[in-house]
Write the structure tokens for this entry.
Amino acid sequence: MGTRAGGRRTGPKCIAIVGPFASGKTTLLEAILARTGAIPRQNPVSSGNTVSDHSPEARAHAMSVEATFATTDFMGEQLTFVDCPGSIEFSFEAEPVLAACDIAVVVAEPDEKKIPALQLIMRKLDDLGVPRIMFLNKVDKATSGVRETLKMLQPASSVPLLLRQIPLRKDGVVIG
């Protein structure tokens, strides 16, 4: 990739966005692109007009069916995101690109039913040696606290999950 400056690698970064079906990967990418100025506004997935779901197949299925790429600049660094399909039927689309990524953002939600799919994704990242961070999505719909949710998700990871940020709540509502 790039050269090292002060012990830090420079140059473009490639970041995979992975997670189970309907966990919010495309929505997260749209939010990142809008907030970094790469697109004028965030489009909801339901609009069929997102950066990632631009192919006729994706629109017909109302979900990501292929790995798609989007680039933006943030704080002087070029970041290329790969939005990977979450449906098990299209997971093969992500495998070739994961090994080339510098890191993966694993989008998870507080839903026990999605842990088996999450385990497959985490195991694939382990096998490829891809470092990852977990983005806990849909915390506003969680029936338990963040720490309890983290404990529930721990079986999906071969390494300990550590809490770095917590949602801010006011009167039981997530506000930030």
User: Anything to note?
Assistant: Residues 18 and 106 are 5 Å apart (CA to CA).
